[in-house]
Amino acid sequence: MKFLIVIPALVALIAAKPADQNVAVSQDTAGNYRIAINLDGQSRLEQGNADGTVSGSYSFVDANGVLRNVQYTAGPDGFRAVGDALPVAPVDHNVPVPETPEVAKGRAVG
């Protein structure tokens, strides 16, 4: 009688195992590494070098069911990311600031 309960429970447990899961990590003695992860519709790929620079990407499905992708780098110039999942500023912050009268007067004198 116990087997009639245990066996179906084990079959259900095995059938419920998550699908499409893949993790790969490698590193060499110089300090370079590579990480690749695919779990439940999300993915991440990252490579790092011995000099400290890193590049990679990740993707995920957002709440609306849209696949979003982001690529990034990190190194001497800092962290930089581009992708369709990042917010975009509504205002152009590169607009030149007009000179104040005091600055204009100082330039004329100097």
UniProtKB/TrEMBL annotation:
Residues 1-16 form the signal peptide. One of its GO terms (molecular function) is structural constituent of chitin-based larval cuticle. The keyword Signal applies. The keyword Signal applies. Keywords: Cuticle, Signal. GO terms for cellular component: chitin-based extracellular matrix. This is Chitin bind 4 domain containing protein. The lineage of its organism: Eukaryota, Metazoa, Ecdysozoa, Arthropoda, Hexapoda.
